[in-house]
Amino acid sequence: MVFNLLHVAVREALKERGIEEPTEPQAKAIPEILEGNNVLIIAPTGSGKTEAAMLPILSKMLEQGTENAGIYVLYITPLRALNRDLLDRIRWWGERLGFRVDVRHGDTDKADRQRQSKTPPHILITTPEMLQAVMTGRRLLGHLKEVRWVVVDEVHELAEDKRGVQLSLALERLRYHVGRDFQIVGLSATVGSPVEVAKFLMGVGRPFKIVMVNVVRNMQLDVVRPWPSEEDVKLAESSGLFPDVVARLRLIKKLVEENRSTLIFVNTRSMAELLGFRLSYLFPDLPVAVHHSSLSKMVRVSVEERLKKGDLKAVVATSSLELGIDIGHIDLVIQYISPHQVTRLLQRVGRSGHRLTAVPKGVIIGEDINDVMEAAVVVKLAKNGFIEPTQIPYKPYDVLVNQIVAFLLLKPRWRLEELYEIIKRAYPYRDLTIEELRRVVKFMQDLYPRLATYFEDSDTVARPRGRGFYRYFYETLSMIPDERQYAVINSKTGELVGALDESFIAEYGNPGVKFIFRGRPWLITEVDDRSIKVVEVSDPSGAIPSWIGEEIPVPYEVAQEVGRLRRRVREGATPEDIAREYHVNEETAKHIVEEVKKHEGPLPDDKTVVVEQFRENVVIVHAAFGTLVNRTLGKLLGELLIRLLEKPVGVHQDPYGIIIQTSEALAAELVTEQLEKLAWMEVREIAELIKTALVKSGSFKRRLLHVAKRMGAVDKEADVYSVSMSKLVEAFSGTPVFDEALREALERDLDLSHTVEVLQRIKAREVKILYSPQPTYLGEVLYEKLSHRLEIIPPERLRRLVLDSTKARLLNYTMLGVCLECGWYGLVRVGEVYELRCPKCGGENIGVVRVVRSDNLEREVRRNYEEVKKTAEILRRYGWLGLYVLASRLPLEAVQEVLAQLDGADINAVTERIQELEKEYLKQRLLD
DNA sequence: GACCTGCTGCGGAGTG
């Protein structure tokens, strides 16, 4: 019994808690940690991982003593919300055993921070970013000298991210600072590459043990595709929804009612809103709420608490509830629509049933038949033990720059060789050469303001003079880029039509571009740093859908397996075979078989690419290679065809096919030839070709900008609108900024290595290319899916669409309200009638300031206080109408003037006048 | 024949 190995005081505390039996990860991990090993614990959220790590550490603290003042344990989690949950959990043990436990992150107030630096806690819970800051304080650095244990929670989340790379270098720096090694315990959900993740956590050359709990083994997984019953049809008629939709909603209701507590995961925020809306619309008595990142922190916390208390029976969530935030016990997870990836499925379903004996239960509800096939494949892969491999960023230069600055803050001068030896121990930089490091350091010297000074003769790097150096560091504590949102404003009416992401603006945000938004075509007339102005047009031809980005990427392995499933059916597998092999019920299996059989002609599968002459000017390449490979292939084919034809070539793709379209005729044979040509190209040539195509894209500009900001080469305030693409590319070409942006794009947006593998299989004739002179069934399905994006919705359908329409994007339009009398501040929702009284002191002198999506409201208040004061007057005089005014982006002075003229007029008159004013204003700006 | 069209995360210290 492993608990007997623990210190007697810990055992007594266990008894007090009523814990008698260890969970599986605890039983396996406790002895290893007690022996002093570095350990990575892989087990689902809620299986007692925190205690598995902390009980032996507490036990060792009691044995070894903690006489010196200082921090003995660092507990790092990627979320502030987890920090808070853990504080409650660990503090209980601290109180029993005589250790101070504290938390420190962006929301921690000044008094607490000061208290901590004077009287350090024995155990400090914090975020990776705050660790960066903590390591610059003289006093706190002294406290850190005592660090003996570091626990990193949710390692899988950090390992794939630059945040994690930053942490890996911070831990190496911490080791240098304390002058010895410390014991590391990592906690992770199920991952595809446990050894890689462990190496990432521990650093190069340090031994470790991995403790793994097999989650899939007793996970209960089902894929269902409900068919409408008579009752569903009836309800559909009365509710105005479609029978299929009603069938799915009623299935969800039934499942929610059968269980005590259910999590419903969806893939997008708008789907969360839509599903939440429809459930409460059809079943007003069903206690369901919605949870995603566009909702304010207050709303989210309240949803979490109501679920925990049992006031809510279910929550519809995006990945916002994937990590281990405490929401109490969950009996069932519903995944609405295919999760696309095995890791996502396991992580999400793993949130249910975590008591010792409870079985995690997951039901995937498929939407259409393709969706069901993919879901079945994901389940099969999971059951077979497949998980997508973990991709750890490979020696990113931007994080390196950031951390060299941090090293220079710790010690003002370094021999490059010494620095190099430390950096190389961080796993992402295992292959870094000293020449590369020197190049990056020289680049830092060339920046203005300088981020480093390099001395050639002694080969040393030193801290530069001046404030710019410190400013850069404190402004760049985080590797997460600030993503801006742009208001879409109807320049005729001045109405706020909605909001678009930076990614769309980067790619297409130019005057003259036509795009589809909220079901209608619009023309961009003007773009500035916060909004785009548009006019409605009638002709949708050539318009770009505003949601142009694809869905969550479907991995290569999943897409290939879907191809194999098609082949199984073509080779004569019966519904019974399919049901057995793919864990779907027989009804679903029967439909899968029927669907595949509808396809006549050559069938695209895992080993067959079919090039189809779909229209005279449209060629479809059926390829079951997944999102990233198809995107790469699409770019390559597009680039070759543009060179050949010297005219525009449109390329769209999804995980199972690529659609190529030209203005004039395009022969399928020509596309086949290009594919063959690619298969015979050298890898180096392919890489060059893809780089050429990549650099042209707007998304590359965006990456370049983010990277440049992280490297201190571009001001933090710059945005995709204010910086010219060509200048950016020109300025950074040949520098580490450019190299890093390219590397990141190749690593995240494309998949060159699997593409090369596919091309080699084509060359070796393991993958056949077949030709179809006519449109096929699967071609129709694919074309339909990608082309109806451009469809215009007739007015009679618009009403329902508006009724359903999600406010997810508009929810981002939250404003910050500040009471100028008592200092209260909080979020104010645009468009809601707002009581202009301070909830705290009742005062009416409240100011509002620009859209924020920040949890750190205090900082926003500090930054924007002057603007807040200006708006307060407008609001006090014009009530909630003032909010509308402020959201309309008219200059404040102009609004003030008109409102003063119309003082006392009724609201409609004022609204009308403001709209007129906006029109004039916009017209004038257009003429300018 | 319509329903839908990627998510999440962070943010100075210590002294004056």
From TrEMBL:
Organism: Pyrobaculum oguniense (strain DSM 13380 / JCM 10595 / TE7)
Similarity comment text for this entry: Belongs to the Lhr helicase family. Lhr-Core subfamily.
Enzyme class: hydrolase
Residues in Helicase ATP-binding domain copies: 30-209
EC number(s) stated in the UniProt entry for this protein: 3.6.4.-
Domain (Helicase C-terminal): residue spans on this chain: 247-400
Superkingdom of origin organism: Archaea
Gene3D superfamilies xrefs: P-loop containing nucleotide triphosphate hydrolases (3.40.50.300)
SUPFAM superfamilies per UniProt: P-loop containing nucleoside triphosphate hydrolases
Name recorded for this polypeptide: Lhr-like helicase
GO molecular function, one term: catalytic activity, acting on DNA
GO biological process: DNA repair
UniProt keyword terms in alphabetical order: ATP-binding, DNA damage, DNA repair, DNA-binding, Helicase, Hydrolase, Isomerase, Nucleotide-binding
